[in-house]
Amino acid sequence: MTVTGAIWREQLTSDQRAMLGRGAGTIANPRPDVLVIGGGILGVAVAASAHDAGLGSVQLVEAGRLGAGATGGATGLLIPEPHQWSDPETFVDMERASLERWRYLEQVTPGGLGLVELDWIGLAPDPGGLAAHQPENVEWLDAAKIAALVPGLAWHLGGALIRHQARVNPLRALVGLADGLPAVGTGVAATAVTIRGDRIESVTTSAGEISAGAVVFATGQPPVIDGLEIDIPADRVKGHLIVTEPASVHLPCTVAPVATPLEDGRLLAGGTFDYGDETAGHRPGSRSAQRVAYLWSFQDRDTQRAGHGPGDHPLDLRGQAAARGQGVERRPVRQPKRRGLEARAPSRGSSCGHQAAAG
């Protein structure tokens, strides 16, 4: 769940925000071929994929509003290449395939999904780079090149430049995927199931009973529903995002571990996992709360004197703390995506330009 206000909702139009509460308290099709329970990006993507594949009628139900769970508190970053230093090759390959699918969907979904192309810089204290042998798609920049690209950086560090990554507003992307679904019911909670043999015969909800040919649970955590006894390894993990007010600090692209620039001049930081923290809301000592210090120390002393001090930096801490379900390997699950109809070019976002390559 997302426990405090999320930046992503603020960026939606009034029509897009209304879509998050679509079909409130109603079940348009009580006898669908496919019933999807859960209205996050995974549930919406599964429902859209089933609909586009011609698997029959599809009904989606969500206990709250669409994207009210971990989806609304995600960073929306689609950056597979930096994970090659930390994750198994098969996992990175899946992330790459996911990014390419997002690009395809941006082009074919009516109205697009709001995909923003961006470059990524990862700062590193080791002058030799992040690894003994850099992958071919990584351009190592020394401290002088980093300083030219990121003026005002207080740290004298080199870093790795990776081009052609991307990001989305998770809620805008979800609305785009859900727009083609004929039957969506928000505010509809699944409370019980009736099982006969090896299949679910019916699902009892707060808005009535549904009998479906197939039932898909996309609830993040394993569903806790009367009549359904399942034992799936899972746990919960808490993460944070921090968003500034529009800032004078300029970042040319995503700079890790500092922040990602948004369209309106605000900076987005976070996406950390705070294992073992079961509290709701922001906790000052959390890993991601320390990004405030990162954002401040990013500026050199001259910039600090001309602007705000460490105690009054214009940070908007309405940014979300989100809890999400994870599988046995403690990794968020990547989602399948849908096909669409019309062609649309992706928008160009934060690029580090050609200074580094020329330097």
Features:
359 residues, alpha/beta, five-stranded antiparallel sheet, 9 helices, 25% strand
Short description:
With 359 residues, this protein is α/β, with parallel strands linked by helices. The chain has 9 helices and 18 strands.
Outline the secondary-structure elements.
Elements lengths: L6 H4 L3 H6 L14 E4 L3 H12 L5 E5 L14 E2 L10 H20 L7 E9 L14 E3 L1 H7 L8 E10 L2 H9 L5 E3 L3 E7 L2 E7 L2 E3 L3 E4 L17 E10 L9 E3 L3 E2 L5 E8 L16 H7 L3 H6 L8 E2 L4 E6 L20 E2 L6 H4 L1
Parallel strand pairs: 1-2, 1-11, 2-7, 4-13, 4-18
Antiparallel strand pairs: 3-6, 4-6, 5-6, 8-9, 9-10, 12-15, 12-16, 12-17, 14-15
Helix pairs in contact: 3-6
How does this model look, in words?
There is one protein chain. Mean pLDDT is 80; it is low at 300-346 and 354-359. It is elongated, with a radius of gyration of 22 Å. Strands 3, 4, 5, 6, 13 and 18 form a six-stranded mixed beta sheet that branches. Strands 12, 14, 15, 16 and 17 form a five-stranded antiparallel beta sheet that branches. 21% of the residues lie in helices and 25% in strands. The protein contains nine helices and 18 strands. Among the domains are: 7-72 and 174-217, FAD/NAD(P)-binding domain; 234-327, no CATH class. α3 runs parallel beside α6 (170-178). The chain has 359 residues and is α/β, with parallel strands linked by helices.
